[in-house]
């Protein structure tokens, strides 16, 4: 097992994997700042060759960078779920997705590849999250919410039932979303209001 990205986010994933008795051989990083993280060797990406049988989690919180790295690799991606998380048996989780401590994902929700459901976040029944979505700590999605690729729901934000959020949207910390949001919107406040738009990458 390998991680890609020696960051604070990787420390939490390392904890999850240790709890599951999964041995992490190394953490890869393009520009290593230290030789070890949580006691695991940090290796410059160019110094190692991964074959198609290698197993890896992209341990980068930034959605754009996580997508770029994931699409550049030909490996098997691991889905990591903390033991304190509550994940319905009817939920579908994509490859490389990470579910952090005390998160809840309820019945018949579907998450794409390389999503992050962070600590204490709630994804209620029948939600659909596309690839590379990040639900930040203590954010909550009510039932039937759909979230487009690469969108970040900020810490403590709330989204009422049935809302459709476009791709690469940024929802600010503590925002309350009561209306559908278009692609690339940057939204803050209660109720949420669009203040500008992200540049398409």
UniProtKB/TrEMBL annotation:
Q: What keywords would UniProt list here?
A: Acyltransferase, Repeat, Transferase
Q: Which residues of this UniProt protein bind acetyl-CoA?
A: 134, 155
Q: Tell me which residues are marked as the site Increases basicity of active site His.
A: 126
Question: Locate the PglD N-terminal domain: which residues?
Answer: 2-73
Q: Which GO terms describe its molecular function?
A: acyltransferase activity
Q: Which residues bind substrate?
A: 7-9, 61
Catalytic residues at: 125 (proton acceptor)
Q: Look up the domain of life of the source.
A: Bacteria
Similarity field: Belongs to the transferase hexapeptide repeat family.
Which protein is depicted? Answer: Acetyltransferase EpsM
Source species, please?
Answer: Flavobacterium cauense R2A-7
């Amino acid at each position: 097992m390998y991680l890609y990205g020696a960051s604070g986010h990787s420390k939490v994933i390392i904890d999850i994997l240790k709890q599951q008795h999964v041995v992490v051989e190394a953490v890869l990083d393009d520009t290593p700042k230290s030789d070890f993280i949580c006691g695991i060797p940090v290796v410059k990406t160019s110094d190692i060759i991964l074959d198609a049988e290698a197993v890896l989690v992209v341990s980068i919180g930034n959605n754009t960078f996580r997508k770029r790295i994931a699409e550049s690799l030909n490996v098997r991606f691991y889905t990591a779920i903390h033991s304190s998380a509550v994940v319905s048996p009817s939920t579908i989780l994509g490859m490389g997705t990470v579910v952090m401590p005390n998160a809840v994902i309820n019945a018949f929700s579907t998450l794409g590849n390389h999503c992050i459901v962070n600590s204490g976040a709630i994804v209620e029944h029948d939600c659909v999250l596309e690839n590379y979505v990040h639900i930040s700590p203590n954010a909550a999605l009510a039932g039937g919410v759909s979230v487009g690729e690469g969108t970040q729901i900020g810490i403590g934000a709330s989204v009422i039932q049935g809302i459709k959020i476009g791709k690469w949207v940024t929802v600010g910390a503590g925002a309350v979303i009561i209306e559908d949001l278009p692609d690339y919107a940057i939204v803050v406040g209660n109720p949420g209001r669009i203040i500008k738009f992200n540049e398409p990458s």
